[in-house]
Amino acid sequence: MAMPYSFAAFTLFSLFALIILWIILSIPIYISADILAKKSTFLQAMEASFLMVLAFALLSLIPVLGVIIWIVVAIIIIAVIYDASFLRAIAIAVIAIIIVIILSIIFALLGLAVLGTVLASGGLLLLI
């Protein structure tokens, strides 16, 4: 039985979905950094989210200690990208987590549970 979609179409769709997810997960970082940082662009938020996901992928290979190290690395990434102090970077991360929770609740109440789930799982993981 032939598959209805080719491997290339599946790969292209997956890449498109990944980019959309990356954009959606960058929004809370952008909003929180825009509130607290001196200068903030959406590209900086995308860069921060990409580097945090990359760091998580590498550090998740170490069971418990990797997550603890990753939290510190994520805060350092935010501090370096936004030229902020360590405490301000922590505040940016905490506000981003609060924004993720609020957006997840709003999406769930609107019946867009898929977007709420994406933000809750990927967003909280990204922004811990």
What does this protein look like?
It is a single chain. With 128 residues, the chain is mainly α. It has one domain. 81% of the residues lie in helices and 0% in strands. The protein has 5 helices and no strands. The protein has helices spanning 7-36, 42-59, 65-81, 86-109, 113-127. The relative contact order is 0.14.
Order of helices and strands: HHHHH
What's the tally of helices? 5
Mean pLDDT, all residues: 83
Q: Identify the overall geometry.
A: globular
State the main characteristics.
128 residues; mainly alpha; 5 helices
Short structural description:
The protein has 5 helices and no strands.
Protein topology:
Elements: H1 7-36, H2 42-59, H3 65-81, H4 86-109, H5 113-127
Helix pairs in contact: 1-2, 1-4, 1-5, 2-3, 3-4, 4-5
